[in-house]
Amino acid sequence: MKKRIGCLHAHYSNISYIENALSAFDVQLSHFVDPGLMQRVMTDESFTVSEAKKKVKEQVEWIAQSGVDAILITCTNYIALMEQITVDVPIIKMDEPYFEAICKNDQHQMILFTNPDTVPGTMNRLQQYAKLHQKTLEIEVVVIENTFELIMSGKNEEYNKAVCDYIMNLDRKDHLSVAQLSMVDAAKKVERETPSVIINPLNTLVSSMVHQLNLKKTEQR
Q1: What angle do CA 180, 94, 7 make, to 5 degrees?
Q2: CA 194 – CA 14 distance, rounded (Å)
Q3: In the predicted model, is pLDDT for residue 212 greater than 50?
Q4: Is residue 82 scored above 90 in pLDDT?
Q5: What is the rounded average pLDDT for all residues in the chain?
Q6: CATH for 3-94+204-213, among 3.40.50.1860, 3.40.50.1820, 3.60.21.10, 3.65.10.10?
Q7: Tens-digit pLDDT profile for residues 27-53
Q8: What pLDDT was estimated at residue 34?
Q9: What's the mean pLDDT in 119-136?
Q10: What CATH number has the domain spanning 96-200?
Q11: If both were cysteines, with which of 11, 19, 121, 135 could 103 make a disulfide (CB 3.0 to 4.6 Å apart)?
Q12: Is 4 in contact with 65 (CB distance < 8 Å)?
C-alpha cells in the first residue's frame, strides 16, 4: 500500500525536488503551498510571531486531517515556527537529517545559501540541534549573492549555472554543504564533475524517510 505523505512548502519550486527524489518509492504525495506566510513574516511588522505560529499550527493540523500517513515540512523557517503541535501522524522536518549529517563532521565546514532570509532560521535551528546532541561546530556561512532572484523569476538554468560556477571556483570543496533544496541540482552537477562530496538536504531527507517510514521501492514492470 502506498504511503500517503502531505508536504508543506513555503514555495512551489520545492515540489519538483520532492517529487523527483521520491519517484522511485511507493508513495502518494499531496502538496500544500503557502508562499504568503513567510512573505508576511518578513514584510509585515504588525504580523506577530505568535500569529505566524498559530497559522503554521493550523496548516499542519489541516494536513493531518486529510488522510495522510506522515507530514513533511520542507521549509526551515516554517519548522522554526512549529511548537506544541500534536497530531496523530509523524511530522518529518526536512532540516533535521541534514543537521545530523553536518554534526557528524567536527572539522571546519562551509554552508552555502542563496536566500539570505533563510540563513537566520536555518542557523538557529542548527545550533539548537548541535547543542541538543552535544556537538561543537565550526561553521562558515556563505550567501551566494545575486542568485536567488533568478530562481524566483523562473530562470532555473541561470540559477543552477550561477550556483555551480560559484562552487567550482571555490579553492576547497571539501566539508561543504548546500542548505536549500533549490541548490541541490547544482551541487550534484559539481559532484559528477569533481571528486567532491557535497552534503545536501535532499539526499539526507530521502535516506531518513526510507528508514523512518519504511518506504519501499516501486516495483518495476
Answers
A1: 100
A2: 26
A3: yes
A4: no
A5: 91
A6: 3.40.50.1860
A7: 999 999 988 877 787 788 888 888 888
A8: 86
A9: 93
A10: 3.40.50.1860
A11: 135
A12: no
Q: Grid coordinates representing 220?
A: 518495476
Burial class (CB in 10 A: 0-12, 13-18, 19+), 88: exposed
pLDDT of 63 > 60? The answer is yes
**139 has a pLDDT exceeding 60:** yes
Q: Are residues 40 and 17 in contact, defined by beta-carbon separation less than 8 angstroms?
A: no
